[in-house]
Design a protein that fits this description.
This is PepSY domain-containing protein. It comes from Microbacterium esteraromaticum. It is built from 1 helix and 5 strands. Strands 1-2-3-4-5 form a 5-stranded antiparallel beta sheet, covered by helices on one side. By secondary structure, the protein is mainly beta.
Length: 71
């Protein structure tokens, strides 16, 4: 895993956040959630995690999914 960057929910994401994740990040933020996002990379795929309990992941097939953290 490679650590990317952190930013506050509602703020402009850093340029290092892949454009493919931005629409899903906006959808999560539209729910009124607050906190900070953390961008990491796992096996070359981006993962943005909001500390309010959500993640936006890029799957191996390139699909982007926004979901609550899995237990």
């Amino acid at each position: 895993m490679q650590l990317g960057t952190r930013w506050r929910a509602g703020a402009q994401p850093p340029s290092s956040v892949p454009a493919t994740l931005l629409p899903a990040i906006s959808e999560v933020e539209a729910q009124g959630l607050t906190g900070h996002w953390t961008l990491t990379w796992l096996e070359g795929r981006a993962i943005a995690e909001l500390d309010a309990g959500w993640e936006v992941v890029e799957t191996a097939t390139g699909e982007v999914i926004a979901r609550p953290f899995e237990d």
